[in-house]
Amino acid sequence: MVEKKIFKIISKFFPEDSFLGEETGFHRGKNSTIWVVDPIDGTRAFSQHRSEWGVLIARSVEGVVKTGIVVCPVQDIFTVVHNNELVYTSFDYKNLNKNISNKISILIEDNFDISNVNHENFSILQSKNQFCKDVISIGFSDFDAIITYAPFPHDRLAYEPIVKYMDGTISKINGTIVDPMEEDIFVLITKNKEVKKQIVNGLFNITRLTG
Fold first, then answer.
1. What pTM was estimated for this model as a whole?
2. How far is CA 157 from CA 23, 57, 125, 149, 206, in A?
């Protein structure tokens, strides 16, 4: 119902654009613009009446993500970035702490084997929370980076413009560029290029666990 409502509104104002939704699939338009929507990211949390869920909307034009919208209403988290400009946010991104400490703090979902990682250089927290990527909505909280699984574009695209606005980077865990419509990947989200470089160089032995 949420996705259908969003699709109806977008179709009214942008009738020639395409639409890719988690629930309803792809609706082809007449131009190169694609709206990518995750109507409720954190469905399990939503069904359990917990607060860790949100609505993610991204807009891609000719393969470049131009707009990112993250709304987590229960947590009072709202961020909209359009064409590299901040439209609205509930956070003061400009005053976020972006200093690089001796140890880089990383939040990683627990489906990784990190036994070969040199913990002298990294402070790592592994979490079962599939919604951990949304920490970037509040400026990565206390983390310098997040490594998270994104099975579909709607799991990550809304964050790309926000990360870039914050002078951060988003890539595959080996540091290479992510194609906007690529599926079944793990993404590395960092506060800046130097943090990304150190993580890519130091975590090359990291592997995904089966299941």
1. 0.85
2. 16, 8, 24, 13, 24
Dihedral pair phi/psi, residue 45, rounded to 5°: -60, -40
The correct CATH number of 2-93 out of 3.90.950.10, 3.40.50.720, 3.40.50.300, 3.30.540.10 is 3.30.540.10
Q: What are the residue ranges of CATH 3.40.190.80 in the chain?
A: 95-208
Task: Enumerate the CATH 3.30.540.10 domain ranges in the chain, comma separated.
Answer: 2-93
Say how far apart CA 35 and CA 20 lie, in whole Å: 6
Residue 31 and residue 201: Cα distance in Å, rounded?
40
Contact between residue 54 and residue 76 where contact means Cβ atoms under 8 Å apart: no
CATH node for 95-208: 3.40.190.80
Q: Report how far residue 10's alpha carbon sits from residue 173's, in angstroms, rounded to the nearest whole number.
A: 33
Per-residue pLDDT of the chain (211 residues; tens, 9 = 90+): 999 999 999 999 999 999 999 999 999 999 999 999 999 988 888 898 988 888 999 999 999 999 999 998 888 888 999 999 999 998 877 766 655 567 888 888 877 777 777 677 788 888 776 555 666 655 556 788 888 888 888 988 998 999 888 888 889 888 898 888 888 888 888 888 888 888 888 765 566 654 4
**119: Cα within 13 Å, side-chain hemisphere:** 7
Cβ within 8 Å of residue 103, ≥6 positions away: 121, 122, 123
